[in-house]
UniProtKB/TrEMBL annotation:
Domain named Tetrapyrrole methylase: residues: 2-208
Name of this chain's protein: Precorrin-4 C(11)-methyltransferase
GO biological process entries: methylation
GN (gene name): cobM
GO terms, molecular function: precorrin-4 C11-methyltransferase activity
Pathway annotation: Cofactor biosynthesis; adenosylcobalamin biosynthesis
InterPro entries: 4pyrrol_Mease, 4pyrrol_Methylase_sf, 4pyrrole_Mease_sub1, 4pyrrole_Mease_sub2, Cbl_synth_CobM/CibF, Siro_Cobalamin_biosynth, Uropor_MeTrfase_CS
Organism the protein comes from: Streptomyces xantholiticus
């Protein structure tokens, strides 16, 4: 048997990849994050599949369920929101599976920041304006940030910042970024990206916090800060330039 870590996408059930849906349909056991994964996706599981909501399970309990399925000879779908490569806690799970000798594969999904960019109708890398995107979060009650990855340090780059898990602390985020980006720097918040209840807030560092609080946004949101969010008079990229030699591989 194999454990498949499947990225379920940012929220809309139809944003799971074709590979992810096919893999989900082939697994006799599905462990899913009930607070984040859309329930409609569970309809892709086999009718007799064992469905386990991991919302109230700790790492030991999750590992035990996977090992149990392994011993019973079942393939396992470990369904995560977004993409398993960022803020998914997959690293600690596969470390346990390595120790237990349980094989696994990772099936990528659509990350939340990509869904947020789509909602904003924006490219996050704009020629001559910004070519770097930093995905990060802030330290609060959860796992602390490593040295050198605080907002003040990251903000000195001037790159587009995409912050996960920070809507509750938007005031702190703004206060730490204004010295580096300026109060007039474009900012946006996308809550519940790709879902029917999706909410998009646009503004600057000066007013985005008040918008977030007025809208009552506290979770399942992505905060974006950077000049590319309002870029207009930028130069076309070299990719489609008529000056590019298209005979060179």
């Amino acid at each position: 048997m194999t454990v498949y870590f499947i990225g379920a996408g940012p929220g809309a059930a139809d944003l799971i990849t074709v590979r992810g849906a096919r893999t989900l349909a082939s697994c006799g056991v599905c462990l899913y994050a009930g607070s984040l994964v859309p329930r409609e996706l569970l309809a892709e599981c086999p009718p007799d599949a064992r469905l386990i909501d991991t919302a109230r399970l700790d790492l030991d309990a999750i590992t035990a369920e996977v090992v149990r399925a392994h011993e019973e000879g079942h393939d396992v779908a470990r369904l995560h929101s977004g993409d398993p490569s960022v803020f998914s806690a997959v690293a600690e799970q596969i470390r346990r599976l390595d120790s237990a000798g349980v094989p696994y594969e990772i099936v990528p999904g659509v990350p939340a920041f990509a869904a947020a960019a789509a909602a904003l109708k924006r490219e996050l890398t704009v020629p001559t304006v910004g070519q770097t995107v930093i995905l990060t979060r802030i330290a609060q009650q959860a796992t602390p940030m490593p040295d050198g990855e605080d907002l003040a340090t990251l903000g000195r780059s001037g790159a587009l910042l995409v912050l996960h898990l920070g809507a509750r602390y938007v005031d702190r985020i703004v206060s730490e970024l204004v010295p580096h980006y300026g109060a007039d720097c474009p900012a946006a918040v996308v809550a519940m990206a790709s879902r029917p209840e999706e909410l998009v807030l646009r503004g600057t560092l000066e007013d985005i916090a008040s918008q977030v609080k007025a809208a009552g946004v506290t979770r399942t949101a992505v905060i974006l800060v950077g000049r590319v969010l309002a870029a207009t008079g930028f130069r076309d990229s070299h990719l489609y330039s008529p000056e590019r030699d298209r005979h060179v591989c």
